[in-house]
Amino acid sequence: MNTRLTCDVVVIGAGMTGAACALYAARAGLDVTVVDRGPVAGGTTGAGEGNLLVSDKEPGAELELALLSHRLWTELAEETEETGETGKAIEYEAKGGLVVASSEQGLAALTDLAAGQRAAGVVAEQVPADHLRDLEPHLAPGLAGGVHYPQDSQVMPALAAAHLLRVSGARLLTGRTVTEVLRTADGCVRGVRTGHGDIHAPAVVNAAGTWGGEVAALAGVSLPVLPRRGFVLVTEPLPRRVRHKVYSADYVADVASDSAALQTSPVVEGTAAGPILIGASRERVGFDRSFSLPVVRALAEGAVRLFPFLSEVRALRTYAGFRPYMPDHLPAIGPDPRAPGLFHACGHEGAGIGLATGTGHLIAQVLGGKAPETDLAPFRPDRFEEEAA
Description:
Elements: E1 3-6, E2 9-12, H1 16-27, E3 32-36, E4 51-52, H2 61-82, E5 97-101, H3 104-119, E6 125-128, H4 132-135, E7 145-149, E8 153-154, H5 157-168, E9 171-174, E10 178-183, E11 189-194, E12 197-200, E13 203-206, H6 212-218, E14 226-235, E15 245-248, H7 250-256, E16 263-270, E17 276-282, H8 293-306, E18 315-325, E19 332-335, E20 342-346, H9 352-367, H10 383-388
Parallel strand pairs: 1-12, 2-3, 2-13, 3-9, 5-15, 13-20
Antiparallel strand pairs: 4-8, 5-7, 6-7, 10-11, 11-12, 14-17, 14-18, 15-16, 16-17, 19-20
């Protein structure tokens, strides 16, 4: 039976970004409905590692957003402690990050990056080669040096998304596919249509992640979001032997690359539950979820180069997900002038978990008629049409 709901804001997407948009919009006093064709965290969020990073961001708009998000994640973690949940509701862990370089040339580039990040407000501590094992006793010998980033942290993404939705108090409608973004005769958004009925609202937030381009098309606008596949390798549970998120300096270059070809760079981190997570791969192959033995082998080899003890550890499983890639590596955040009432909060690529809180906070400010805390101009949804004109 078809029904019709009315609210202030419809958020399309029950992943981490959609959950954060719902939370901060609700805290701004708005009546929020979240709709998703699948379950909570059923897309990119559920396939993520839960990284909340400042270490992999170059100075600029994205790093500014990451620092805002870091502050908000810290506040949310403190809230769970105040309610007696001691962070377990989201498995928040302020573990810090350690970026290592295998050559003097790589170390020089990493040192330059860290200097720029420090000027932007990041805590980045140089670590000489002979002190790396003070931070990570099981690291391979012979590394040139590294940088320690104490602000890097982690959450369990599916738990965190569910928690944010729960405490938001938003109406949650899962298993409902949005088939149309409803618009008035003069082009303004007035809600969405689903197979279970219409939801009327003067504001719609596109938080559909990798599928954000498809949702934009439902409103008659274009957004060049493409899937970028990545695999994660999961080991057997172990006593804590990897203390930080540890990755090669090459990872930063891979994140910023425009190449559609396969790229892998070692990323290794322990989890509160015991398994070690190993990444990271990137390739644009559409929505192909096929298992790739060469990719997984490359991940394992890279991890062993950083931590030789992993050669004796069993890998239990692997999983793949799709990062929402944008051509300039910046998300689309804010109102879309081509469809008044439509707001975008997608295209964060592999940084969506970490950037979700800042994104949701800024969206809520704009929805409430306030000036956003961070300049949204670099994230304008229509910027690609302007470049093509």
